[in-house]
Amino acid sequence: MALTPPLGATYGWRARIGFVTPSPGHENNGYEFYLMAPDGVTIVMTSLHVTELTQQQYDDAVGRMDVAVGELEDRRVDSIIQAGVPLVVTRGWGFEDKLLAEVAGRTHIPFATDIGACIRAMETLGMKRVVMLTPFDESMDRQLAEYVGHAGIEVVANRSLWPSDEAAMSRRYGVSTMPLAEIYRAAKDLFLSNPAADGIWITGALMPSVAIIDSLERDLGVPVVTSMQAMMWAGLGLAHVFSDVEGYGQLFDFTYGADPDDDDVWEPEE
Predict the structure, then answer these.
(1) pLDDT at 80
(2) 8 A C-beta contact, residue 40 and residue 12
(3) Which pLDDT score, from 0 to 100, does residue 261 have?
(4) Do 212 and 183 meet the contact criterion of CB atoms below 8 Å apart?
(5) What b-and-e string marks burial along 136-158, b requiring 16 or more CB atoms within 10 Å of the CB?
(6) CB half-sphere exposure, 252, CA atoms < 13 A
(7) What is the distance of C-alpha 173 from the center of its chain?
(8) Residues whose CB falls within 8 Å of the CB of residue 1, separated by 6 or more in sequence, listed in order
(9) Could you give all domains of the chain from N- to C-terminal order, each with its CATH number?
(10) What is the mean pLDDT of each run of 10 residues along the chain (270 residues)?
């Protein structure tokens, strides 16, 4: 991460990307954003205050979306991304369209969701049979697999890094400080155990991920999509910032919003 702010310009002189995070405390989202951000692009964050991973809290958070969008609109951001796949996925297929329509009725600022960006990224990279690594519980993993199935993406195998005992459950946010080597190894082993897969999907932006994308793609020869990477890709595209982002996956070789059928899907380097 090497930021080079120009003297005499605001930090977000090129674009300011609004980011609606579920949890009130967040560290990896901002850090990973700036690992990938081109010069002149900044993040503006607000929270939906999800403190417990329950459906009631997810529903309450969706109810606060209008307030969050208003906060970011006041800050004059160029695009808005909603982080957190459970907020949309637990409402079922079709809810994202409803949410997008509601936000569009509130503001002219372009808006995308975490799950929507991930699906568009996988479609763009030609990923149809994926292995999925998450920090969620078994129930959420099942819902995720069912949800992306509606988009024609099959989860052929999945693994969760969700804590397995009650004591660890109380420290669930510890996933944000999980060693990258552990996440890399889990994704790699999962893929090697399922060679019929054509890509790796790592969801759950609370969990570190973007720093291992390049290594996974080089070592395994398949595309990798992670939540934070896909949201960054969407945020830049919606803000009309098209700049080289190197070292964080082949996804950035493509333009967000372009028809995947108009471009060749990604192929690994020889």
Answers:
(1) 97
(2) yes
(3) 57
(4) yes
(5) beeebbebbbebbeeeebebbbb
(6) 23
(7) 17
(8) 31, 34, 35
(9) 15-255 (3.40.50.12500)
(10) 68 93 82 94 89 75 88 96 92 94 95 97 97 93 97 97 60 74 97 96 93 97 97 97 93 81 47
